[in-house]
Sequence to fold (157 residues):
Amino acid sequence: METERGIVVELKDGMALVEADAGGGCASCASRGSCALMAGEQKRRLWMANGAGAKPGDMVEFSISARVVAGMSLLLYAMPVALLVCGIAAGAAFAPRFGMEADAGAVLFGVGAFALSFGIIKAFSSTISVRKASRPVMIRVLGTGELAGETVKKGWI
Fold:
């Protein structure tokens, strides 16, 4: 489990909204600039239990389970490709039954299956985000208020 750092920007019902730079795993990823998770943003906002008693403006250390990161990566990248390929194969096989050419059916079914994958991702993302095991875990407060703000301005996180 890799640790990351961020600044608490909001508290609500025992939860903290933490703004963090792209994680260490993101820094070494070849897809960082085009990642669906990052959507071109340099900062992420993550809700987590405020187990360390942080206040807005505090710099905190947190971790995200490697299992959750791997699972979300599979969901976001492998599922759309798998459904696209399956849709193409199904379209080519079943198109003649609908009076279509195999190529047209492959395109139609492939695009449909690919689009369906985004609905599935949205449904799973909503389900996963409410599970306690999939949330980031706040480990400790590293700095408070002004100190944390100066650290961010100087680029130390």
